[in-house]
Design a protein that fits this description.
By secondary structure, this protein is an alpha/beta fold. It has helices spanning 24-33, 47-56, 83-93; strands at residues 41-44, 59-63, 78-80. The chain has a 3-stranded parallel β-sheet with strand order 1-2-3, sandwiched between helices.
């Protein structure tokens, strides 16, 4: 999202519902692309990514350098060290909402 309340570009120097951790961008994408967010994953490298995903109704995965250092935040469903590991976790949990995505 190009908006930032302390930005210097006129028109973008404000809060906006697309700024994470607000879910606005994800909700708009779901409307535009007919996505089922309850069957979708938000993968990000910051807690605000997972918070936006959770608020939109997605399962969430946080990319971290050390998966043992999992943050204590209810918006994070899974952690992975890289996208390959993230994809494996997501595929494993794809049709099993009861299955924890943790390794």
């Amino acid at each position: 999202c190009p908006h930032h309340p302390q930005g210097v570009v006129a028109g973008y120097d404000r809060e906006h519902p697309w700024r994470k951790p607000s879910p606005g961008m994800l909700l708009q994408a779901a409307r535009d692309l007919d996505l089922n967010l309850s069957r979708s994953w938000m993968v990000g490298d910051a807690l605000r990514d997972c918070q936006a995903g959770r608020r939109a109704g997605c399962r969430t995965l946080l990319l971290v350098q050390d998966p043992a250092a999992r943050p204590r935040d209810s918006s994070v469903d899974a952690v992975a060290e890289d996208l390959l590991h993230a994809a494996a976790l997501i595929l494993r949990a794809a049709d099993r909402p009861d299955l924890s995505p943790q390794p």
